[in-house]
Each structure stands twice: as structure tokens, then as C-alpha cells.
Design brief:
Shape: globular
Number of helices: 6
Order of helices and strands: HEHHHEHEEEH
Strand content: 15-25%
Largest sheet: 3 strands, antiparallel
Number of strands: 5
Helix content: 40-55%
Distance between the termini: 30 Å
Structural class: alpha+beta
Radius of gyration: 33 Å
Length: about 220
């Protein structure tokens, strides 16, 4: 009968304190999740951080491209079609020759073959096209992104000389690569800025959760 009994409220208070701590931790976890603390799947995606144009070769025709035994016929044909689409277009022969020189322009092959003149368009005379590989330097390695193409056409600078026209096409290819590099650089800069600005918010939310858990522990 002389045994000293523990106050009846002591044990429930400890359990309540533990529940408060767990509840606070749960609130902190939900807050972090709801506020976007979890990794954004898009931030984990494979990002292109650079690009190189490699192995470009100039061909006078689709058959010459196929004969080189580098690309399949379908690839050579598709590259020719896209090169044709990339050539400058003008609504009149006079406007085209004013830009590229007299005798340097023609109707596109399909239009010329069907005899369509009225309502058509004109372009510098196609002498051939260049085909090459566009290699992507990504966050996970180096891969072939696609086959690229560049039209080789006549203008007042090369006057129909094939070698000079190829040099002009190479120059346009380098300009295209430079524009793509600049675009990729801007995207990478925006990505890094987004990641940098998100870090302080994550730290602040973590601190809020820690303070909540600490307040829960004071009741123990």
C-alpha cells in the first residue's frame, strides 16, 4: 500500500507529445510535396547542351547521293526535298534575279515539269545540295539527332561555279549551326536560372517544417 503510483496524466501526455511531433512532421512533408519540393520530371529530362554539324558532303543529284553509299535512297530523296523547300522563294522571276543575278533563277523542278507559270514561285537555280549529320551533345552523352541538308544554288557571287557554290552552302551551314548553338545556350541559361531560383524557396520551406517539428517537441 505504500507503493508510489505514477500520476495518471504523465503517460498520456508523452503519447500526445509524440503524436504532435509526428503530426508536425507529416504537415512538413505534405507542405514540401505540395509546394513542389519533389523533383520536376522535366528537370530530369535529357537536355541538349550543344550541337555539331558533321560529315557534310555536296551532291549534284539524288542519284549521286545514293551512289556515294553513305545514305539510303530514301534519306537522299528526303534531304533533297527539304533542301528544295529551304531555298529562297520569290513570287516573280524578276524579283529573284534582282537578288541573285540575271539568269540565276528558275521555277522549282515540280512547277517547271508541269509547266505551271502563272501563280507559281521562283528560286535560285538548284545546282545540288549538301547532306550531313547533326550531332547533339546532351546531358547524357552524344547522339545523332538527325540528317540535315543545305541547298547549293546559283547566285551572282558564284556565277554557277560548282565549287564556289558549295563554299557558299558551307557558309550558310555554319551560320545555321551558330544560330542553333545560340538558341541552345539561351535554353540552358534559362534552365540554370530556374534551378537556381528554386533552391532558396526549397530551403525556406524546409526551415518552416523544421520549426513546426520543433514546436511539436516542446510539449514532451
Amino acid at each position: 500500500m505504500s507503493e508510489v503510483q505514477q500520476p495518471p496524466m504523465a503517460r498520456p501526455r508523452r503519447k500526445r507529445s509524440q503524436r504532435l511531433v509526428l503530426a508536425a512532421m507529416g504537415v512538413a512533408s505534405v507542405t514540401l510535396s505540395a509546394c513542389g519540393q519533389a523533383p520536376d520530371p522535366q528537370d530530369e529530362r535529357e537536355r541538349v547542351v550543344g550541337v555539331d554539324f558533321e560529315g557534310e558532303q555536296a551532291y549534284r543529284s539524288v542519284d549521286e547521293c545514293v551512289a556515294a553509299d553513305v545514305y539510303t535512297r530514301s534519306t537522299c530523296e528526303d534531304a533533297y526535298r527539304r533542301a528544295l523547300e529551304a531555298a529562297p522563294r520569290f513570287t516573280s522571276l524578276e524579283a529573284c534575279e534582282a537578288r541573285f543575278g540575271e539568269g540565276s533563277c528558275e521555277a522549282p523542278p515540280q512547277q517547271a515539269a508541269t509547266g505551271q507559270q502563272g501563280g507559281g514561285w521562283f528560286m535560285p537555280a538548284m545546282m545540288g545540295y549538301m547532306v550531313g549529320n547533326m550531332m547533339s551533345n546532351t546531358s547524357r552523352g552524344r547522339t545523332l539527332q538527325q540528317v540535315y541538308q543545305e541547298p547549293v544554288y546559283r547566285d551572282r557571287g558564284n556565277r554557277g561555279d560548282w565549287d564556289a557554290a558549295v563554299v557558299g552552302a558551307s557558309s550558310r551551314t555554319l551560320s545555321r549551326q551558330a544560330r542553333m548553338e545560340q538558341n541552345i545556350s539561351n535554353q540552358e541559361r534559362a534552365y540554370r536560372n530556374r534551378m537556381t531560383t528554386s533552391s532558396p524557396r526549397a530551403t525556406q520551406r524546409s526551415g518552416f517544417g523544421s520549426r513546426s517539428a520543433a514546436r511539436g517537441g516542446w510539449g514532451s
